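Hey forum,

I'm writing up a methods section and want to include a predicted complex as supplementary material. The small molecule is flavin-adenine dinucleotide. I've pasted the protein sequence and the SMILES. Can someone with a working setup run it? I'll credit the forum in the acknowledgements.
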Amino acid sequence: MSVFVSSTGRGLVNKSIREQVLSFSVEHARGSRSAVLHRQSQPREDSHSRRSYGTLKILDPKEIPNAHTSSPWTMQVQQCDQRRTNVNIADLDKTRDGRERVVILGSGWGGYPLSKKLDHKKYQVVIVSPRSYFVFTPLLASTSVGTLEFRTALEPIRNRRSKTRYIQGWADDVDLYNKTITIEEAVADPHQGLALTGDRDEGKDQVQIDYEMRTKLRKGRLFDLRYDKLVISVGSYSQTFGTTGVREHANFLKDVGDARKIRKRLLECFEMAALPTTTDEVRRQILHFAIVGGGPTGIEFSAELHDLLHTDMTKIYPELIQFAKITLYDVSPKVLNMFDAGLQEYATDAFSRRGIDIKTSRRIMELANGLPGVDPEVQAGRPGLTLKVKDEEDLGIGMCIWSTGLMMNPFIHKALSAIRRFPPKEVIFKESYQDAEVAQWHIARDAKTGSIMTNDRLRVMIDAPYPNGDGSMKAHLRDVFAIGDCSFIQNTMYPATAQVANQKADWLAKSLNANDLHGDHRFRYNNLGIMAYIGNAKAIVMGAKGVGNMSGTTAWLMWRGVYLSKSISWRNRILIPMYWFLNWAFGRDISRF
Ligand SMILES: Cc1cc2nc3c(=O)[nH]c(=O)nc-3n(C[C@H](O)[C@H](O)[C@H](O)COP(=O)(O)OP(=O)(O)OC[C@H]3O[C@@H](n4cnc5c(N)ncnc54)[C@H](O)[C@@H]3O)c2cc1C
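Reply by user p_vandermeer:
Happy to help. Structure tokens for the complex are below, copy them as they are.
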């Protein structure tokens, strides 16, 4: 895989850098050198990215060994040529066969189904994502406790039949004028497979960021890719609200690496508790599992954990089960807010009957290392955590699962805040504006969440204030689309769910395949209902379109049926019921690796 990534990389960079060199050379020829230099040292205006054209161009020739030319730009290109002898864009271009290139950023519920449904005879489809697979998120909670194997919640982007081209990298920047995106390779990135909670460069100062960027550029770890159509579906990060210690010590549940970490830690807690030298007080604390967030993810994880404890752990560690406890916290007065009151009550009653403590209207203040009130000598080798809840005593726990909502992907803010140059051909105006060409346009975003605003054909919207400050001009980009959790449709309140992301992907694929992005053909969300597993072979279903609400075992059968049928590959449709049966017959696999 890394060979492919590199081999795609070089030509792209070289081509792009050459184009940029060319465009700057033309300007150089036309204008004065000082004007060009001024431009080069200005931050790039079409992005709040940490990089700037200045950074790209003003490399000191002395920094580049064996430089023989007088222009730093030419040297930069030469440097790239020297370092990337085995990489080539021709591969991607050769197989294009006159097709338009659709670049999809992200391989989640928006990007992956879109890549599968686009007509590959018509489009060359390239996914850029740090994750080489798609995650079927509704099954993550089951995989984290061993009800299902991790494999069953994944679909690899590359497979023997796939025609989609893939580059394992982070989209770092977008140049709307030249229709290129800048990619940072991610093959060896330690963040992949895990939930992200903040900017990857957080904590670094600008000098360090610039230095690292130059190094990456020189080493070919940063390169450009041209697109004809761009689909942004980079999803969201996990929200921590800046709560002290959460990023460092909590577990999240957003990707398969998170599920693996949770399973490992759970079993670790039981093994630590099983040591003959562990005191009962420590056992009570490290077998206490706290879940923060009473949305469907927090509830489903609590339910799956309860199933694991009371069907398998109770037989495997009979002497320890008396110490095990689950507590779920939420800052709001109720859990499962998106469900009807009757279903909420059904779920909370079921939880309390089973001994899962639901603590609402609680604010978590901190998550710290170490168990409260336990001598550090006694704790040695049995690491635990302290959960500090407002107005409550410190609580010793073995693990905290944090699931309190979404935070906008920092890429959206960094790469898409403002537009440096106005791309006239690429814009469709709502009406004709006199000052359009001189106005400062921005990507339209939600003021509160920061997500990208699109129209109901999923095209990214841009706006610019009128020069007199009275209102704003509106337009949308012809070839740039946004779907999934990182976007919303103007004047709508569709939830950030897989259902919405998947329907948008479907609609966009059909529309692009049929060249039908005009007239009355617009995206409409079709609410198919929501459901949540609440443990002990029971679920709740809030139906839509005349289908009533359901709860209990019938709802659980429906929950299983729906997710099985929605699974993408036949491989997983076969594997999932097999694991359900195996675990029912022989118990969950609790090996720790
Ligand atoms: C545990 C869990 C259970 C859920 N259950 C349900 C459910 O039952 N029903 C439901 O409707 N919804 C559910 N959801 C919500 C659903 O998963 C999300 O709404 C959905 O994943 C959003 O799809 P997306 O494509 O926008 O983002 P994601 O699926 O998160 O995908 C984002 C992709 O972008 C990539 N990416 C990130 N940054 C960059 C970058 N800079 N450049 C390139 N790529 C990038 C990521 O690696 C990833 O591949 C669940 C979510 C979780 C976490």
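Some notes you might quote in the supplement: The pocket of flavin-adenine dinucleotide is lined by residues 105-111, 128-131, 137-138, 140-141, 170-171, 233-235, 253-254, 297, 409, 411, 484-486, 496-499, 501 (CB under 6 Å). The domain at 246-404 is CATH 3.50.50.100 (FAD/NAD(P)-binding domain).
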